[in-house]
Amino acid sequence: MDEIIVSVIERLGLFGLFVLMALENIFPPMPSEAVMGSAALAIERGTWSFWPVMFAGTAGTLLGNYVWFWFGDRWGYRRLGPFIERWGRWLTLEWEDVEKASGFFRRHGHWVVFLLRATPVMRTMISLPAGLAHMGKLKFCLFTAAGAALWNAMLIIGTQWLARTFSDSDNVVGIFVISTIVLALVAYIWRLATWKPRAKR
Fold first, then answer.
1. Residue 200 falls within a domain, yes or no?
2. For the chain, what is the domain count?
3. What's the pTM value of the predicted model, to 2 decimals?
4. Residue 13 domain-assigned?
5. By three-state DSSP, how is residue 196 classified?
6. Closest of 16, 54, 4, 17 to residue 177, by C-alpha
7. What is the pLDDT of residues 79-121, one digit of tens each?
């Protein structure tokens, strides 16, 4: 299984890695753990190198986050509300979620963009309130890139550690990567199937 995963990511190339990481931050069902985990396997096998993977992954993350920042910055609360109301089901997002994230951003300041990018909690969601608050574009990009680089480095190093620690057990990392993708898709489909706006609950 590990060989299959490495083969797929190698066929996509670094540009494909960049695109996948951008999409992971725009549309819900693509987990960064699986994407960067696959790239880490390629590094461990010696077909890719650490720094090109880090650059491609971090650049893709920055682009994906900037899309949501741009929406918040350009559209503002007035235009974004109807968009979330119309497409929130597919994004599994409600306006109340945006308000909560905006309140969190206002309480804790710009540094939460960096801190949350390096954690599994609200990593992409925080980009929208940052845009709504008209955070400086350069500061947003710097904080997002730094947090994304830290998160991606942890994913790469963690996956490499798993591959080396369980080197005698075939396909451990491959199973982890595939399981992450399957769980993310199942969770997304479940949320779509059971979606009901809070106002109708």
1. no
2. 1
3. 0.83
4. yes
5. coil
6. 4
7. 887 887 777 777 777 778 788 888 888 888 888 899 888 877 7
